[in-house]
Write a structure and sequence with these properties.
Layout: H1 4-15, H2 19-24, H3 26-47, H4 59-62, E1 83-88, E2 98-103, E3 108-114, H5 119-131, H6 133-140, H7 143-148, H8 174-177, E4 182-188, H9 190-193, H10 198-221
Antiparallel strand pairs: 1-2, 2-3, 3-4
Helix pairs in contact: 1-3, 3-10
Length: 222
């Protein structure tokens, strides 16, 4: 579970997103960061017993900085209003699929997959889905996957309008071949964030996602 003070800090920075306020509340930030890091490490310690690809990771290697990169953004707010951690084989900047935890009041979730891969890896994954569609379909249509995630995220930002070149529109895997990101997300309420059941919720989400992560990474390694 996370402390209520961690959520309170994230709520406050949303309406006080400036350097002066942040520096005046740096102690609150450090406490929130340490709280989140401790929780992420507990998830790593538990889930790495089932996925040995993440056994060597430490929470610090998985967490993202709170500072925003504003160089190419119209929004010049200097800080993020969330805390996130990517538990990927090779660390948070890895090209491989993995698990993700997002903590943001009202918008928290656990899940993961592969987000906006490079063209070469996109090509490999689409080919694997096409060749091994029965296996892929079994993963994303399994009862545990549907219960936790429903399906992969098919929002317009994650999907092409038309099936990619080289594939027929009647392909049974068409809806998944059109994807540009292969991710699944389970919402987490603010109440769950500060409950004793939070660890259980996150571990369930990651364990359910693991077969998909393995499928994706097999394709990338090919």
């Amino acid at each position: 579970m996370l402390h209520t003070s961690t959520l309170l800090f994230l709520k406050k920075i949303k309406s006080n997103n400036n350097k002066q306020w942040f520096e005046g509340h740096r102690a609150d930030y450090e406490a929130a960061k340490n709280d989140f890091e401790k929780f992420v490490q507990s998830i790593l310690d538990a889930h790495s017993k089932k996925d040995d690809d993440i056994t060597t990771l430490k929470a610090k290697e998985c967490m993202f900085r709170i500072n925003r990169d504003v160089r190419f953004s119209k929004d010049k707010s200097p800080y993020k209003t969330n805390m996130g951690a990517s538990l990927n084989r090779g660390g948070k900047k890895s090209v491989f699929a993995g698990y993700y935890l997002h903590c943001e009041p009202g918008q928290s979730f656990a899940g993961g997959g592969l987000w906006m891969p490079m063209p070469e890896d996109t090509k490999k994954l689409r080919q694997e889905i096409d060749y091994c569609y029965a296996e892929f379909k079994e993963i994303v249509s399994s009862k545990p996957f549907i219960k936790v995630y429903g399906d992969l995220n098919k929002d317009p930002e994650y999907s092409l309008v038309n099936i990619p070149k080289g594939y027929d529109k009647t392909n049974p895997a068409a809806e998944y071949l059109k994807l540009k990101s292969w991710v699944a997300m389970k919402k987490i309420t603010d109440g769950e964030l500060t409950s004793r059941q939070l660890k259980q919720h996150v571990l369930e989400a990651f364990e359910t996602l693991q077969p998909l992560v393995k499928f994706i990474n097999r394709a990338i390694e090919a």
